[in-house]
Amino acid sequence: MGSLLRGEDMVLIQMYIQPESAYLITAHLGESGCVQFIDLNPEVNSFQREHAYQIKRISEMERELRYIESEIKKRNIRIFDIVDIPTAPNPRELGDLEAYIEKTALDIRELTTAATTLKMEYYQKVLEKNVLLKAQLFFSQQEEAIYNEYTPEEMRNASQLGFIGGVIAKDKFFSFERLMWRIGRGNIFVRQADINELITDPTTEKESPYTAFVVFFQGEQLDAKINKVCAGYKATTIEIPVTPTVRNERINRISAEVQDIKVVINQTEDHIGRLLFAVAKDIQNWSIVVCKMKAIYDTLNMFSADVSKKCIIAEGWVPVNDLPKVQHALDLGSGAYGSSVHSFYNVLNTKQTPPTYNRTNKFTQGFQNLISAYAFGTYGELNPALYTIVTFPFLFAIMFGDLGHGIIMAAFGAWLVIDEKKIDAQKNKNEIFGIFFSGRYIILMMGLFSMYTGLIYNDIFSRSMNIFGSKWKVDQTDLIAQGINVSVLQTDDSTLKAMLVPKNSYDGEPYYMGLDPAWQDADNKIIFLNSLKMKLSIIIGVIHMIFGVVLSVVNFMHFKKPMHILLDFLPKILFFSFLFVYMVIMIFMKWLNYSGMNDNTEDIAHSSGCAPNVLIYFIGMMLFKAADEKENCNQYLFEGQEMLQHVLVVLALVCIPWMLLGAPLYENFAKKKKTPQSTNQNGHAGHHDSETPATSALSEEEEHDEPFSELMVHAGIHTIEFTLSTVSHTASYLRLWALSLAHAQLSEVLWTMVFRRALVTLSIPYYGGIIIFVIFAVWAAITVAILVLMEGLSAFLHTLRLHWVEFMTKFFDGQGYEFEPFSFKRIFEQEEEAARE
């Protein structure tokens, strides 16, 4: 919990590593993921670093693995999942692994090339076979017609005709034939026949219909033109023998060749499949091993050698709690090679600001991501994610408060949590579902809190639940006036009480929990809920913002700035209390002093008709304007309220120069009195004691000399921003009221317009059940799509804004940077995200 409160204490360490054990030590540190290494060779480019050659070899291995994986996926072979993640191999194993991967890729490449060549040859033979079969039919029909209809002289002229045969895609033949007619001006004769079988093109691997054709012409000029047109349409031309005997022999020979090639292709594909299936069992392990080796050598390139080049030096940020892991990795690396000189580390004294590291688990990770999406906390300051775990789902539930919709959301979140291992193991999650899964605990919490607020609002799918019975009594005089026989009614029937409209029949006892169900059918239901939820949103917003301002005290104490509590926190909290806490107090006084029970009593001054408007009081307070008087009503809530309001406004105005001048004058005075010894007493981030990490971020700020004018400018901007934002931020919390009321009314409209109206108007005796079933399905689909998904997303975004702007700005600076340790797990996650994108 301490880590989530303000982040881990960080130290900068310097490791002295023996060269022969550097690889193994780095591998152990990558498995533990506890060190963020600093590049000690920033001026050296990547091609001149010590391990550039090894990285080049590993990059070539990665390229070969990507090729093998693409071939596996192309043939729809299942890649086996990893049972145990392999560790990084010994550097001496790099050559063996490299040779094996290269040999495997070479074998696959040779076999696929041979298969492609065979497929292309098979494709050509199949086309030639079909063209010859169709041409044989054309010529046999033509020869028979010539012998029967033409004279010997005409037969000699016909024998001088040239012809070109070929095959073309079926969808191109029509335009091909038209173009032939145009270039020949009617002197070209085209015969065609569709090929019955679909032929697979080896280049595109798609089956397409083809048409065989024979073009008859006379003259060499037409011969050249026809060949150009065939080339333009990508038609395959086939040489056709003149005599029938030769054509028959060629058809028989090609048919035999087609069968032989097909057998060889099947054998080659089977051999490739067996080879790829064997590789598919190990390719994931190979990919992980290669990725780890490349990451290790990339990290080793960040190290530097000492002057004697007998030792390697590395520097990096480490959480204090993870220092034993670093020592364990150094011991393992040194012990593996039996070195007499052990590797060790030293903690450095530094004035650099450490990175911010908030250690999380599966539950807190989602909430931390919400904060990190806005900014990374300055080292040592409070982490808003800890408080967001409670406040975020609660503020969401205020806007989304419905027991039925909360059950749907909680059930979805519970399913994601219960089956998280099975879902997380799936590699093909789409991006949207991945976002929902990463926030599964947030969804679960929002659903549970929405169920609670739904009980408080007494709202379940826009209906009320009558659990404890209504506190409103039945006014029998109104029933008699309406012609209802009250003698047949049970006066203690709670169901009847909830169904009747309450009219000054409250018994004076509060409802046990939440909203009385009698308000569901009241004429002034919307007016009542509008007033109640608006005041509740103001109260909750003021409490939430005051909590944020109070948290700034913890930061001042941690960074050893006690004077800022007096010069910054105190005027802020007083300014906020004099205005907005006073407004909240007026809301509670209005609720306590005015009641509808006094409407028929002598205490008219405290009846509902005399209840004042708190907003009018507040506006009059700011304008120094007296409140309007009502007949038989008190002008103010209590005696001396007008004078108190004037005093509060004046005191609030006094807080403005207090905020503006206090901190700059103190910092300017402290800068003049500062001595070198006092600077050294602040400590550094590299020490083990608890004071050091807390003051490291502050030491740089104190040593950065700013002129008094800049201090005044910053203080002026800060003061103007805070004073103006108190009004805008308080008004911003009215979105709790607006979205809650809109959600409830939209749910009620959906019930009334879709489900209730359909049930009332249905009068079909036999098919009514089926129709009701269909109507329920429509209503349920619209409820999930609009009220749960769309309204839920809207409430989520508004809640996010309330935390980022209205709450966190009161104490969260967010000027830090993230702790990014050298971790194999982190590298794999980044690669998976990049692959999905």
Structure overview:
By secondary structure, the protein is an alpha+beta fold. Among the domains are: 2-92 and 277-348, no CATH class; 112-262, Alpha-Beta Plaits; 472-510, no CATH class. It is built from 28 helices and eleven strands. The strands form three sheets. Strands 1, 2, 9, 10 and 11 form a five-stranded antiparallel sheet that branches. A hairpin with a 6-residue loop joins strand 9 (304-305) and strand 10. Helix 2 (22-32) runs antiparallel to helix 10 and helix 19 (525-558) packs antiparallel against helix 20 (562-593). Mean pLDDT is 83; it is low at 488-504 and 676-703.
Could you give the count of β-strands? 11
- Overall radius of gyration: 42 Å
Cα separation of the termini: 34 Å
Number of helix segments? Answer: 28
Could you report the average pLDDT, rounded to the nearest whole number? 83
The rough form would be described as: extended
Strand % is 5-15%
- Unreliable spans: 488-504, 676-703
Described by strand count, sense and barrel closure, the largest sheet is: 5 strands, antiparallel
Give the % helix.
55-70%
Which structural class do the helices and strands define? alpha+beta
Topology overview:
Blueprint: H1 2-6, E1 10-17, H2 22-32, E2 36-38, H3 52-74, H4 94-149, H5 152-158, E3 162-169, H6 173-184, E4 189-194, E5 199-201, E6 206-208, E7 210-217, H7 220-232, E8 236-238, H8 244-280, H9 283-300, E9 304-305, E10 312-319, H10 323-336, E11 344-348, H11 362-372, H12 385-400, H13 403-418, H14 420-424, H15 431-438, H16 440-457, H17 476-481, H18 494-499, H19 525-558, H20 562-593, H21 614-622, H22 641-673, H23 676-680, H24 691-703, H25 708-732, H26 734-761, H27 768-807, H28 824-836
Antiparallel strand pairs: 1-10, 1-11, 2-10, 3-7, 3-8, 4-7, 5-6, 9-10
